[in-house]
């Protein structure tokens, strides 16, 4: 049963999405936080803004977050999905959930290639709560971002009024 989404995406989700887009590399580890809520936020962002945001899951494959029933053909296996991401010439944020170790040598190589800063077009591959051993293995090739919301916003004085 689906619930109705808010008319605009949550502020915390937008801030996290912006941090992903501004990351210095193409491969990101999103660690901690409530992944189910983050996925709902990203789905709302994709629908609200029209951004190309995809989610890969082991039992489902690669699909669009904007269009719930839109699956990318031939991307059931992780390796095929990573090749698709690598060959895509369009903007895209690709979320990978449920990645398990051990990875094949080819999958690890593809992740390292995706980590290199893209030239010409923006592409981000985001591993959702990846295993610590994978993050360590990728080392400096992966950008680490916390999934928790930033520190609570402190009120500040603007034009004689306190604003958040």
From TrEMBL:
Species this protein is from: Dyella lutea
What this protein is called in its record is: Uncharacterized protein
């Amino acid at each position: 049963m689906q619930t109705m989404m808010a008319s605009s995406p949550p502020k915390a989700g937008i801030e996290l999405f912006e941090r992903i887009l501004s990351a210095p590399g193409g491969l990101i580890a999103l660690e901690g936080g409530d992944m189910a809520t983050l996925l709902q936020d990203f789905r709302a962002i994709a629908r609200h803004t029209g951004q190309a945001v995809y989610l890969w899951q082991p039992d489902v494959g690669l699909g669009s977050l904007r269009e719930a029933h839109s699956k990318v053909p031939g991307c059931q296996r992780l390796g095929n999905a990573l090749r698709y991401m690598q060959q895509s010439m369009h903007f895209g944020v690709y979320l990978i959930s449920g990645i398990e170790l051990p990875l094949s040598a080819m999958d690890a190589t593809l992740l390292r290639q995706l980590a290199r800063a893209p030239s010409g077009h923006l592409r981000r591959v985001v591993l959702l709560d990846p295993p610590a051993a994978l993050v360590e293995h990728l080392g400096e090739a992966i950008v680490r971002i916390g999934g928790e919301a930033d520190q609570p916003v402190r009120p500040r004085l603007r034009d004689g009024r306190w604003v958040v």
